[in-house]
Amino acid sequence: MTVESLEALVDEYLRVIVRTRPWKRRREGESLSLLVRWADSHSRGLAADMEAGENALADRCATDLGLDAAARDDLGAAVRNLNHWAGARGYLDFDQRSSAPALRGSTRR
Amino acid sequence: MDSNHEAVWHRLLSARVTRRGALRGAAAAGVATLLPLELRRAGASEPARPAGTAIQNRAPFRPIRPTTRDELVLPAGYRYDLLRAYGDDVAPGQPFGYNADFTAFFPIDVPDGGRSSQDGLLWVNHEYVNSMLAYGYREGRPKTPGDIAAERMAVGGTVMRVQRGQDGRWRYAADSRNRRITGSTPCRLTGPVAGSPGVGGAIQVIGTVGNCSGGVTPWGTVLSCEENVDEYGDPVTPGGFGLGWSEYTREHHGWVVEVDPFDPSFTPLKRTAMGRLRHENVAIRLAPNGLVVAYMGDDKRDSCVYKFISERAYDPGAPAANLQVLETGKLYAADFGTGRWVLLDYASEPRLRDATRPDGSRLFGGQADVLLDPRAAALLLGGTPVDRPEDIEIHPLTGHAYIALTNNNLHGNFHGQIVRLMEEANAADALAFQWDFFAVGGPQSGFSSPDNLLFDPYGNLWMVTDVTSSAAGDPQSIYGFQGNNSMFFFATEGSDAGKAVHFASGPVDCELTGPCWTPDGKTLFLSVQHPGEESESLTELSSHWPQQDGLSIPRPAVVAITGLPGWAPGRTFHGW
After folding, report:
1. How many whole angstroms separate alpha carbon B371 and alpha carbon B392?
2. Which of A13, B89, B282, B496 keeps 20 to 30 A from B157, CA to CA?
3. Is the minimum CB–CB distance between A26 and chain B shorter than 8 Å?
4. Does B266 fall in a domain?
5. Are the C-beta atoms of B420 and B392 separated by less than 8 Å?
6. B572 in a domain, yes or no?
7. What's the CATH number where B152 sits?
8. Which of B132, B243, B302 is opposite residue A23, by nearest beta carbon?
9. What average pLDDT score do residues B548-558 get?
């Protein structure tokens, strides 16, 4: 997954959350914005971090950013939810060399 | 889709912004030679401006200032009457739905040829539901059947009678035609996809959801557009994004839905020939030969603008036959790079027949599959992905289509534009067009993220904005200059053409949606959608609007705004 596609994924996720769980948008949006900004500065190692799993990804991001325990928990929950949603939608199953094609593509899944 | 293709729109954008002044000049020169719009069949009355009629292209109000007040703020001399808010009765046992959106006013006497501006049926869309604010859902507990029943009841549409009293105030009125159409209402698929394998062979389907904006037909029905329909059938999980509706089939939704508001027994008809998209709205124009042309935006970043041309002509003398006009026709996508409409037709297009998925299986097995996924077909054939095409409306004097491109943060387009599309020879069914920018959002123009559009009979454009509620009204955000989501007026002719004049500002976290006129132009109906949407709990409410009936929980509602001067004597306008 490229950094651009992660940003696209987060953005689309927040658009969904605002329709089904609008009360979570602000908190998850803040956490996932941190993740995107962090990923932007760690693009070279991002693929490996993601392969290590959602918890490892959130941990590394939280450690690098020096988040406190509460913010770390929020980030972990947000990343898990994002991953769950993206997996269910089939958004993680695409050509990793291109820029978020799944988000631009078919209405049928 | 290759990466070069997706960048086309942005290269075009850059070039057009640079050349904007020159292009606008050229477009203006071209307008003078264009034929007047035909809103009626050839030979019928011509709605174009009568000779010698003065253009009224000055805003009929003193503009408000941007504000973050938790109120629907209007210019001095204007006021609003709240007609219904979420939960208010529409009919016995049928409450007004959540997140009001598109509205359409049907004069009560229109079946008899009248044009009442004091009494009518008002259609209102209900796009989606905030479970916490609507019925107190608390995350972590399982949803009960009652919860889901409440959600199903909260979406769809409302038909209700509204009347203006002797005191000038608008009120809801009981009527035997009042009804709710909901997520449980039986509907029928029509057209090429009905009964096809892609919908499990279904013709009868359950409910309508995601009802965003819409349109009205020349024959007096409403078109309600299903936009975001994906999450209803997903389970309610611990992390949660699904709504947990059982018996929900995604492919049964995402269509344009036609309803006759005057017939309480009418079964909503889902028009599959118009394609399955994230439908924002439908803007209808008649071709010179009477064919019905419908412009549609796919409200998604990097998605296309579409045009449907009916196979059958509209016949003002055949009301029953007109209900079949939208059953068959051709669907096109706009290629802004060449100025051509691209036909999405399986039979004549080998690239659609040959398209395969990564696993080698065929992407489309026939035209029904193309209509189930026009986005994939359009991108395959050269349709241009643009920056969230939302509302499209037709200029009543020139016939040009105005397209709101709300924004696209994926490509740094944070404030959006309004694009003007001019058909070749000004024929609605043309297959070639020119285009330019009418207005570009940003601090320099005072507005951001254009969404629903509405013309008045003088060709002035009224527009509401859709800045995400997490940023709207935040002075620290790049959208702070606008205040809360708002409504603006634009002249489309004269020296002030394209300049935004601030008409209204909505309550905290809301989006103003679905503006429509009475025929005399003295009333503007408007929905206030998702006030207080950013509230994290029922004890941390970000809005309390409308604060009626002793309730502090924010509630979406529809209002009637008065104080408008109306149109000049003899002029009526109803948008259809």
Report:
1. 20
2. A13
3. yes
4. yes
5. no
6. no
7. 2.120.10.30
8. B132
9. 93
Q: Is B569 exposed, middle or buried (0-12, 13-18, 19+ CB in 10 A)?
A: exposed
User: CB distance from B476 to chain A under 8 Å?
Assistant: no
Total domain count for chain B? 1
Could you tell me whether strands B186-190 and B269-271 are parallel, antiparallel, or unpaired per DSSP bridges?
parallel
In this structure, what token pair is assigned to residue A9?
């994924």
Say if residue B261 is preceded by a cis peptide, omega within 30 of 0: no
Q: What is the C-alpha to C-alpha distance for residues B365 and B355, in angstroms, rounded to an integer?
A: 10
Q: Are B103 and B135 in contact (CB under 8 A)?
A: no
Q: Which residues of chain A are within 8 Å of residue B385 when distances are taken between CB atoms?
A: 104
Residue B567 domain flag:
no
CB atoms within 10 A of CB B409: 14
- Our CA-based measurement puts residue B518 at a distance from the nearest CA of chain A, in whole angstroms, of 31
| B231, B254, B358 member nearest A107 (Cβ) | B254
Whether residue B420 contacts residue B339, with contact meaning beta carbons closer than 8 Å, is answered with no
Q: Is the per-residue pLDDT at B82 higher than 90? A: yes
Is the CB of B152 inside 8 Å of chain A's CB atoms? no
Give per-residue pLDDT as tens, B112-134. 888 999 999 999 999 999 999 99
Mean pLDDT score, B350-375 = 95
Nearest to B239 among A25, A84, A98 (CB): A84
- The ipTM (two decimal places) reads 0.75
CA atoms within 13 A on the CB side of B559: 22
Q: Dump pLDDT digits (tens) for B464-501.
A: 999 998 888 898 999 999 999 999 999 999 999 999 99
Structural domain boundaries in chain A: 3-94
C-alpha angle B262-B265-B269 in degrees, rounded to nearest 5: 85
Q: What is the least distance, in Å, from the CA of A65 to any CA of chain B?
A: 22
**Residues forming a β-bridge with B211:** B226
User: Which residue out of B127, B199, B410 would a mutagenesis test of the A interface target, given it has the greatest number of A Cβ atoms within 10 Å?
Assistant: B410
Domain extent for B10: 3-562
Does the pLDDT at position B37 exceed 50?
A: no
- Confidence grade of residue B43 (pLDDT, cut at 50, 70, 90): very low
Question: Considering the domain boundaries, does residue B574 fall inside one?
Answer: no
Integer distance in angstroms from the first to the last C-alpha of chain A? Answer: 19
Coil vs helix vs strand at A76: helix
Burial (CB count within 10 angstroms: exposed 0-12, middle 13-18, buried 19+), residue A63: exposed
CB-neighbour burial class of residue B47 (10 A; exposed 0-12, middle 13-18, buried 19+): middle
How far from the centroid of its chain's Cα atoms is residue A101's Cα? 16
How many angstroms separate the CA atoms of B88 and B96, rounded?
A: 5
Q: Nearest Cβ partner of A80 from B128, B239, B376?
A: B239
Chain B contact set for A7 (CB, 8 A): 410
Q: Which residues of chain A does B128 touch, with a Cβ-Cβ cutoff of 8 Å? A: 19-20
Q: Which residues of A touch B209 (CB under 8 A)?
A: none
